[in-house]
Known about the structure:
By secondary structure, the protein is mostly helical. It has one domain (2-164, 195-270). Helices cover 69% and strands 0% of the residues. It has nine helices and no strands. α5 packs across α6 (110-124) and α6 (110-124) packs across α7. The longest helix has 81 residues, at 190-270. The chain starts with 8 loop residues before the first helix and ends with a helix. The relative contact order is 0.11.
Amino acid sequence: MDVLYAVRPEDFVAARTALVKELKADGRKDDAAAVAKLRRPSVAAWALNQVAREKPNLVETAIDAGEKLRAASDAAVAGRPGELRAATAAERTAANAVVKAAAAHLGARADATAPALLATIRVAALDEEVADQLRRGVLVTEQEQPGFGFGMDVDRPALTLVPDLKPKAKKASKSTAKPRATAAVKAPSPAAAAKQAEREKAARAKEREAQRARKKELVARQRTAQRKEREAVRLAKEADEAEAAAEEARAVADQARQDADAAHNAVNELT
């Protein structure tokens, strides 16, 4: 059955119909019914399926790099950004390698489908079902760009929510800016220092809370987009099933006409 996803999208329905007839002729009615329900892949999904069949190592590397980037993104939000830069670069390189391989199958459509290709690769790093379909080369449709932990195009850094990791230049304090001879400023008392430390701690806690809230919002938006995607997939599946049923009905009608013609000819021979 999976072999159908190696067929170009424009030839999919005809190939599916032929396979259904072949399976029925062999008495494999259950298999024929399952094949009749298979959906035609989008152009982007088809191109990725070809990469998975021809260069599975590229796909596996991209999925693995995406998983590592997600982990590094979570660590960065938690205040541990050490692996983020390397993970971002590795994920971008791996994902672009798959996009480039898929583009070889798309010709003039490569540029237009590149964002969909990249988004699908990155969703595979987050969704086990999509990852399994991609590895097997049986994707039916492209996916929405994930909302957290990944970038929005091939050339930008692959992270959308990252704390400011650049060290900020410290402003010279008044006590150091003035000549020592004229700086008669007393060192802060222990109580004042403690209050300052508390204020800084509260500010850091507030910043972390804002980051968590932003992450929560982005995850919620992603889930909403995924729900809409599933609904669209369901409607498309129903349309494909209706198309498959119509194809099957036409095949039955053709067979009935052939049977009728054969019966008519037999009657004519007898008379």
